[in-house]
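Re-running DC1 domain-containing protein to confirm reproducibility after the cluster update. Everything else is unchanged from the original entry.
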Amino acid sequence: MVQTSEASQSHNCDGCCEVSGYGYYCSSCEFGEHLKCIDWPEIINHPCHSRNLLKIVSIRTIDYTGKVCHLCNNPLGYPMYHCSI
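Result of re-run:
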């Protein structure tokens, strides 16, 4: 990954889906995130899902979701946390 100051107009940030200046971008896998989006905690303990920890994931890592939330059927947003159980 290389640090960039300008976003490619053909790519959205993988952290927030907005097109604007990236913090880091990989041209091999086309993954890019703003500096502000990189700072999300890797694991959280959410009160609505207190039995298990939730881990941050990219939409690309969980293809079985159909890219919609299983609870509200809205398109997935960022950051996105997922329980592995």
